[in-house]
Amino acid sequence: MRFLLVEDNQNLAMAVVNRLSLDGHVVDHAPDIATAENYTSTTTFDLILLDIMLPDGDGRSFLKQHRKHQNKTPVIVLTARSEISDRVGVLDLGADDYITKPFDFNELEARCRAVLRRRSGSGDNTKNVGNLIFDPLAGTLTVGQKFIELRNKELRLLEILFGAPEMIFSKPNLVDRLFSYDEDVSENAIEVYVARLRKHLDGSPVRITTVRGLGYRLSLP
Amino acid sequence: MSIPVNSSYSIKRRLSLQLVGSAAILATILFVLVLNFAAQVSEQSQDNILTASVTSILDSASIRGGEVSVDIPYAALSMLGNVSDDRVFYRISADDIFLTGYADLPEVKQQNRPDESAGVRSFITAPYKDDTIRMVSATRQLSVGGEPVNIGVSVAQTRNGQASTLARISRTAIILGLGFFVISAALAIFAAQTSVRPLSRLAVSVSRRGPKDLRPVQSPVPTEMVPLVKSLNSFIARLKTSLTRSEDFIAEAAHRVRTPLATVRVQAEIVMRRVEKPQNRKALKEMIRTIDESSRAAGQLLDHAMVTFRTDHLERKSFELADLVADSVERMAPLAELRDIKIDMLSKDRGQISGDQILIQSAVHNILDNAIKYSPPEQVITVIVQRERQGDLKGITVQIADRGQGFNKNDSARLTERFIRGDNAADTVGSGLGLTIAKEVMQAHGGDLTLNNQQYGEGACVSLYFPF
After folding, report:
1. Contacts of A42 (CB under 8 A, 6+ apart)
2. Radius of gyration of the CA atoms of chain B, in A
3. ipTM of the assembly?
């Protein structure tokens, strides 16, 4: 996914960029509206994260312009607490969701995912392998005649594995990415989800193989 | 919140009393003046008639054959009689020798000068025969055989007629004075009311304002009230600045605390992905949890400050509770999904309540957040909005139930206190403020928060009750 982050607080911006990059997203950072407009006129983004208070103007005017130009890229507004009462106004202007700063990254990730699913449904991100169709945005998996709605953890696990086929992911790595740190889970919890995914993938050419002592790997035919 | 005001006196009452008092004094003065004037006039007219009578008697005095002769003209006494039935007395003397009439009429000391032929008139009021008389005396010089003789004539009349006239006039004067007093008193009260009216109008226009209405007073006021309104406006401006400052401070503080924590957390996460040694991973995980805990505590503390701040200035607005709850549910769904939890809204009874939407949203948000945290993964959280009757009280309840461990019986009374967390919550990141915030919001709205366990099966059930 390609994200545009419009945020003037350098520290917060770097934290968001680093965190989203960890999950394999590409994030461009614009510290002001002028830079953001420069980006949007040349690049297509999957999602824009927009701050309201920017050094060269109000994020809402950017949002208005953005929608006026028929730009359909979903926008999540980052609001400060004192702007709470403006939340509704932001949604009216065409934002897809808002998140109150300072936010948890888990929440940000969850909201991004929800917005992306709601907005685009399916698209270029769909993976087709033989009789298997995996749509990560819709969270669905089709194997031949079998249609499966994936649970959130199953979906994210499959996404991680599909992101780098043939690469070995260790159990601790997968736990880090699947569970938040306030959940006390053992590494064996991964086995449950791997078992479920294997069942879903039954009948397709895609396999999840265990590499003894190292972890799991997605094998394509 | 109303603080008793120390009121020393009422301008309206004081002004009315002062004006009514002056009206009473003026009415009394008017009464006395009219009475005096009437007395003067009536005395004057009696004096005039008496004088005319005396003059006509004196005129009729003549010397006949060396003798003083006085013919009292009929008219001289009859002109006195037609005024009233007052008695008339007279005395005629020559050189202080009594000639005729009533000898015992009071004497009048006369310092006549010899060159004055017509004499000097004198007017006295004196007691006579159990009555009060008004007496006019005059002298005339006649010459008897070359010798000057002073003829003195006194005519007196009792004053009964005058007194009755005066009584009549004084009655009229009393009515006049009273009428004057009543009219001026009415005008005074009206004037007092009118002059105080701008004050009460200002008071009403200020007290009718909502708690967030901090505009300066701009409606025109009398010149005398300009300093008051000026200082009121400057007070409003100061209040506004300090309110904005506290709100900004709360937001700013949250930002300042949580942003660096977020940065550190990301660094730790990045390191975590590269570290393989179990004990290092454990330490890093501890660190991230602690960061989460402090970040959350900071956020909740400032949330709590915000709630306290807003409940002090509660901004009520009417809205549909079920819509607000549905909104919150929709907003929390992505977070619930992280743990594969579904939030089901089973009932959406309609019902408008009046309150601060942001506060109520924050209460519902905190309860939902708890439900998501304490519910096992892949479970359902149920939300019910239901009209209810508690005795005579009609209200609407929001029930949020999860399938977690539920509340520990011993805990549930203390859980809404600050920083108190359940004994079974040790493994979950939390600040111990969520329920406190919700409880305070409910209390500010005259509602109630109750913690129960589900009747059937496991799990906690939190009810928010709003009276209509």
Report:
1. none
2. 52
3. 0.79
Residue A11: what residue type?
N
Contact by Cβ (8 Å): B464, B442: yes
Q: Tell me which residue has tokens 């998140």.
A: A99
Which chain B residue is nearest to residue A20, measuring alpha carbons? B266
Amino acid identity of residue A3, one-letter, is: F
- State the pTM of this model: 0.63
Q: pLDDT tens across B274-291, in order?
A: 888 888 888 888 888 888
The top-scoring range by mean pLDDT among A198-207, B150-159, B189-198 is A198-207
Beta bridge partners of B328: none
Cis peptide before B220 (omega within 30 of 0): no
- Bridge partner residues of A149 (DSSP): A140
Interface test with A, best of B252, B259, B324, B361 (most A CBs within 10 A): B259
Where would I find the H helices in chain A?
10-22, 33-42, 59-68, 87-92, 105-120, 152-163, 171-178, 189-201
Phi, psi of B373 (to 5 degrees): -65, -40
Q: How many Å apart are CA B438 and CA B441, to the nearest integer? A: 5
B374 with B402: CB under 8 angstroms?
yes
Contacts of A80 (CB under 8 A, 6+ apart): A52, A53, A100, A101, B251, B255
Of A110, A151, A153, the CB nearest to B334: A110
Q: Which two tokens stand for residue B303?
A: 């949330």
- What's A82's DSSP letter? G
Write the burial class of residue B40 (CB in 10 Å: 0-12 exposed, 13-18 middle, 19+ buried).
exposed
Report the distance separating Cα B141 and Cα B115, nearest Å: 9
- Cα angle B114-B115-B116, degrees, rounded to a multiple of 5: 90
Residue contact B260–A11, C-beta within 8 A: yes
How high does pLDDT run on average in chain B?
83
Give the separation between CA B429 and CA B406, rounded to whole angstroms.
17
Which of B145, B153, B161 is CA-nearest to residue B80?
B161
Asked whether the beta carbons of A78 and B299 are under 8 A apart, the reply is no
Collapse the DSSP code of B212 into the 3-class scheme (helix H, G, I; strand E, B; otherwise coil) and give the result. coil
